């Protein structure tokens, strides 16, 4: 990932970001540490879309597990913890 010091942005303004982001996503360095990430709008939208797709995939998998009977219900948190402990003992 590209980097640019915050001081460079302070000195040159948004033009410094425009020049650097043309090469890809951009870390802004402040106090010698990455502090911020700047993405193009296209990259940002792609990340949001991927996040939504991953969420839907997890929901679909959960529903498939429920339909296939791979879901166990517990009467309490204590019962769940006991089942997890018993699983660890195997």
Report what the structure shows:
The chain is of the alpha+beta class and 90 residues long. The chain has 2 domains: 2-38; 42-89, no CATH class. It contains 4 helices and 3 strands. It has helices spanning 6-12, 14-21, 41-67, 77-89, and strands spanning 2-5, 26-30, 33-38. It has a 3-stranded mixed β-sheet with strand order 1-2-3. The model has no long low-confidence stretch (mean pLDDT 94).
Oligomeric state of the chains present here: single chain
Order of helices and strands: EHHEEHH
Structural class: alpha+beta
Average pLDDT works out at 94
What is the general shape? elongated
Number of helices: 4
Report the sheet-strand fraction: 15-25%
Strand order of the largest sheet: 1-2-3
Counted beta strands: 3
Major β-sheet, in short? Answer: 3 strands, mixed
- Give the CA-CA distance, first to last residue: 44 Å
User: What integer value in Å does the Rg equal?
Assistant: 23 Å
Measured as a percent range, the helix fraction is 55-70%
Whole-number tally of structural domains: 2
Low-confidence runs: none
Helices and strands in order, then pairings?
Blueprint: E1 2-5, H1 6-12, H2 14-21, E2 26-30, E3 33-38, H3 41-67, H4 77-89
Parallel strand pairs: 1-2
Antiparallel strand pairs: 2-3
Would you summarize the structure shown here?
The protein is an alpha+beta fold and 90 residues long.
Keywords:
90 residues, alpha+beta, 2 domains, 61% helix
